[in-house]
Amino acid sequence: MPEAADNGSEPLLRIDGARATVQFNRPRLLNRLQPSDLAKLLEYFDRIEANSQIRVLVLTGTGRAFSAGFDLGTIAERTASGPDQPSSGSAFEVVADRLEDLAIPTICRLNGGVYGGSTDLALACDFRIGVESCEMFMPAARLGLHYYNSGISRYVSRLGVNAAKKLFLTAQKIDAAEMLRIGYLTAMVPAERLDEEVDALAATLAGNAPVAMRGMKRAINEIARGKFDEAAAEQRQRDSMRGAEIKEGVAAYKEKRRPQF
To answer: What is the pLDDT of residue 86?
Structure first.
C-alpha cells in the first residue's frame, strides 16, 4: 500500500472498486487522532455505507504506527474545563461503535503499533491483520481514566475477561505474538507480506454475498453484546431462502463457477 505524502492531514479515503480504504495520516505524530478526525471518520463511514458498490473496508495507518489513539492534550483541555464539557471519550465511543456496526465487513491493517483508543477502533473491525513488529497497550489506568462502556464491553466480548483485565488494569504493553495468542490479531505476518494477506482477505470478503454477510454480522455482534434479536435474525434467514443471493449461490455451485453477487 503506497504511503501518503502529507505528514499532517485528516484521514484519507480511497475507493478502488469494491474496496474502500481509510488511512490515518499523521505519521510524525504516530497518527494521533484529533477531534476533527472523528467527525471525518463518521462522514466517511456514511459515504461508504451509502455506496452499494463497496463490499469491504480496510482501516490502516501511515508510517511506523497504526495509531497512538486520541490526542491527550485535547482530553486534558476538556478535563480542565470542568465536568460540564462534552466527553472526549463519548465522541470516540460513537466512532468505534459506528465502525463496529458498519454493514460491510471491515479489516484493520495494523502496519505498526496500536495504542490507547485506537486499540478499540481496531477491535471494532471484524478482522485484524498485523505485522510481526506491532505492539499494543491500553494506558487508561496510568492516566486515571475510566474507559467508556462500549469499549470495555468490546474488550471483554472479543478477548475474554482475563485478557481485558490484564490490558486495562496493568496498562502493560504486549507484543504481536501475545496479541495473536489472546485473539486480538486475526493473523500475524512479516511486514513484506502484510499487503498480500490483507488483499487476499479483502478479495474473499468482497466476493461473498453482501446481504447474507450483513445479516450474519449483525447477528454475531448482537450475540456478543448479549442483545440478540432472534425474531429479526429468523426473518432475515427466511428472507434469504427466497432471495436472489441464494439462487445465484446454488446455481454457481451446480455450474462449478464463482458466484456473481
So the answer is: 47
Q: Which residue has the cell 486515571?
A: 144
Q: Which residues is 174 bridged to in the sheet? A: 136
How confident is the model over 143-154, as pLDDT tens digits?
Answer: 999 999 999 999
* Banded model confidence at residue 4, pLDDT cuts 50, 70, 90: very low
User: What are the tens digits of pLDDT across the range 225-259?
Assistant: 999 999 999 999 999 999 999 999 999 999 999 99
Q: Using an 8 Å Cβ cutoff, are 120 and 91 in contact?
A: no
**Domain 12-205, CATH number (from 3.90.226.10, 3.40.50.1700, 3.60.15.10, 3.30.1360.10):** 3.90.226.10
Smallest CA-to-CA distance from 11 within 123, 115, 32 is with 32
Q: Which 8-state DSSP code applies to residue 191?
A: G
Grid cell of 60 as nine digits: 490502516
Q: Is 154 helix (H, G, I), strand (E, B) or coil?
A: helix
pTM for this model (two decimals): 0.91
Beta strands in the chain (DSSP E): 12-16, 19-23, 56-60, 65-67, 106-110, 113-115, 127-131, 135-137, 174-175, 187-189
Residue with cell 481509510: 22
Other C-beta atoms lying within 10 Å of the C-beta of residue 81: 10
